[in-house]
Amino acid sequence: MGRIPVPLKYTFKDGLEAILRNYRIEKGIRLKCYFPMGGGSGYSPFQHIHEVDNIDDFPNMVLSSSFDNVFEKNFFEKFIDKGYFQACQPKPLPPIYADCGIEDPEKRFTIFAVVPIVFLVDHWRLGGLPVPGRWSDILDPIYHDKIIVGGWRKDEKSPYSEFNTFLFLNIYKDHGIQGLKHLAYNTKNMLHYVHMSRIAGSDSELGAAIYIIPWFLADICPRRGKTSVIWPEDGALAFPFYILAKKAKLEELDVLIKYTTGRKIGQYLSDNCYPPLNPEVEYRYPENAKLKWLGWDYVRSNDTMELIRLASEVFFEAWQPLLFTKIET
Question: What are the protein's UniProt keywords (predicted)?
Fold first, then answer.
């Protein structure tokens, strides 16, 4: 069972279907895969897979580009800490990933790619203010009403049902509740990432000076003469694409794992600014780029989903309380 961002879905699924077809012809074995297509489709099963009580009711392999409920403390205690899953991390690990510590030291999660979260700066709207260089910079009150973060809602009368909880968690980890309040003070608006990329550098009244946005969408902004992609000095936030594969099923999952972590799909991900952890691909990282990962000690010693709920509530309470949709467990 898998999901990845919409821009990657069709190429990823086409390759997956070819692999499965050839495997069925060569081995006479049909592997069942569920890979929903379209924006926002198929999310319900992912919202509830962590609720199973028996490991046999959990999919043999989950591939996800969401920092989701399998990171809840209860799921760790029930299944992950008991050794039901085994990482299949490609080696050797490229230095940018080794340096940020994103490989799971307990070898349960396979991290096969990341979404780097960066700054996209509109120089005209920034005016005479300094270009932010680090994550702590965006908390400075000189940037009041000059930041846009990722978020989506059905219409202007509805609260936000999706937003960048990973950003909130990172700010909370490094700067606490006060840091979230500073971010809220500086936030002008929440927009879908695609919309950010389209309006950055324009005279749209929805625009702002600083967009916190995935590298891929910052990179395709059409007004690059008026904007710059700023890679934070302390590292772009490394939002993980992960695999959870059952240890007892690794042999039959091998063809799927090799496809997902392999060079061909890895180069496609790298070319589209979703860099993989495969050491064989050519990377597009800027010179001296760093990644910033939460840290596995932090993930394992906290209920990160509970912290996400707390951080989101703090942010919206300081920003616009009526626009908040409470995060369900």
Answer: Signal
